[in-house]
Model the fold of this input.
Amino acid sequence: MKRTKFFKTLTIIGLIILGVFSLSSHAFGWGAATHAYIDSHLGEKDSLNAIYGGMVPDMFQYVFDNHCLSVELNERTHHSFMPVWDEASVSPAVPPKALAYGFVSHNDTWGADSTAHHAGITFGQSEGYIIAKAYELKTILEQVPEYQALQIPDSISLEISHELVEDGVDILVRRLDPTIGRKLMISAMGRSQALPTLLSEAYIADLSSCAGISYPEASRLISFTEAEFRKNVVAYGALLTQSETTAVRLLSQQVGEIAAGFLAANGIELPPNTELSLLIEFAITTSMEICADDFDVEIQATITLVRDNLNSHGVSY
Done:
């Protein structure tokens, strides 16, 4: 996976975003709203639990002070994901299976994230749709004098572009489904209580071994992390219920508040009183423009791919 993370902070409104989502250590694939849209179109029962389950694999990426969560467990949720399905499949109830179905759909091996990161279907076939678009955005930004003045290293510039493209696509998804923000909120608030148990049963041994903690301690840490993630999804859903213009502006303002700290952490000191929100708004808007003509066909192709792969791996209910 890509390294050094940045602006998934952009995706969550309010103070939670500032304290939880800056400086991730791994790249995201599709944004939360895009995963929600994909899972709402996979055609299974209980789509709200499937929607929330489809966002959950990213939950450990946000715990930056805990290597075992942000790196080790994050790797497991994206590449060793079937234990969650195995735990859920023995239940006679639909909600646990819907959660696990969404969870597996997200994966970065043959699931939704694989088309964002590794092999786009309609664009970016050799590197992934999001990665290919990030290169386009990076080229545009590097022609802007205000961006040039920041003197951002090439690798960091690509990471920034990557994140902004993901967020631009998330906002574009609202054009396909204006209710997507509400779906995020409802899916998170109403998710089945079976989820913490599913996650704990699947990953408790990995966390206990990595962190050197007892099974009960590992279980509590997994449950706490999911509870915080759940709050963030509700907040992000609230942001996406706003108009497109308002959502972009709020996103840009939030990013402007944290961008200086992110850049400083990477050895880039900005001049005093540097204002970044307008530049960030330009970048998000530009990312939407370069994705507007083909994001839909790539997402629809991803839905078909994921549905076929789920069926071929025996993940259905």
Summary: DSSP finds 16 helices and no strands in the chain. Residues 215-240 form the longest helix (26 residues). The chain has one domain: 7-307.
